[in-house]
Design brief:
single chain; two-stranded parallel ribbon; mainly alpha; about 280 residues
Amino acid sequence: MPQWMQDIGGALHEPLAWSYFRHFFVKYGIAESLQYLVIVTTVWLVLHVVFRKRLAHRLIAEWPRRGDMPREIAYAAAALAIYAAGASAMLGLVGAGRIEVYSDPLAHGVVWLLASLPLLLLWQDFFLYVAHRLLHTRWLFRHVHAVHHRSRQPSPWSAYAVHPIEAVVNGSVLLTWLMFVPLHQDVLGLYLLHQVVRNAHGHSAIESLPAGFNRHAIGRWFTTSTHHHMHHESPGGNYGLWFTWWDRFFGTEHPDYMDRFDGLTTPRATSSLHARNTSIQG
């Protein structure tokens, strides 16, 4: 058994370790939940309330059902609790010297400080593309991933609405990274912030990016709200989290994605075009 697993096992018998775990679990859980609540609420208010009429022509399919929100919030709360527990365990590993989250920006050089976040996001994108494909195998989809796909018309509230097992998979991305390389504490904070913002945006049901973004030399490699929304509509493709290259490399990008994005971002798309987009979902 690896030493770091023995350290965790030993800590389970230490009352003081449990005290520290509970303290950090509550502290991190509250902070992470507040961040999630503020970001998701902001995206929802801006796109679905304040600019609802102005952005109606950018609606990807149908407005999300308000009846889904209680379920999505409940699953998101469970996922946040799991993430808080994982963060508390990782703090114990930091204290045991098994993984490193450092505070001095120059401890590992400026190059690593600047490169670590992009590299971590690349790792997360690859890890979760593979995990996502596995979650779409018959048994795992039916018993685990179907929880997330119950939101056929996703909203920002569905960003973290996943089965607890899927939440554990998502949370393991960071641990597998830290087992091999160090990470600055501010880079960790930016990673967590990016995760919430991009997830809320990807589930927004509104295509808010500008026309031509999907065909731009750089923009074409980033997923959009349309890209992920089409995955909720038809779960057989568009598995990418942040980037589109794995879908393109493995041929899993929906063939209608480019045209769908173009139609939604045409200035003041006609009502007939919107009706056609809605009818695609049957």
